[in-house]
């Protein structure tokens, strides 16, 4: 049938994609393009934001004791609920504008500015 896979739909595992491309299943002159699963992209965004909240701390010394306080978490800041909302809108921005990288960027920035202003 001469069927060839043109796209590889990935979940973020670069080793698998590298292995497929490196094996050159269709010869030297055939390129397999990688497409990322939007669900996995959303999940990575959520994980990165949660990690950022955990890692961004401020140390203060009070009465001889060092106290570590998370500076991004708390009321009016980057809460778990807000991360969930941002992640959903991030995925929607990609899904609704997949025909243009610029449109995706614009939609993501619009979400950022909307939540930053409220």
TrEMBL record:
<dbReference type="InterPro" id="IPR049012">
    <property type="entry name" value="Mutator_transp_dom"/>
</dbReference>
<feature type="domain" description="Mutator-like transposase">
    <location>
        <begin position="2"/>
        <end position="115"/>
    </location>
</feature>
<dbReference type="Pfam" id="PF20700">
    <property type="entry name" value="Mutator"/>
</dbReference>
<protein>
    <recommendedName>
        <fullName>Mutator-like transposase domain-containing protein</fullName>
    </recommendedName>
</protein>
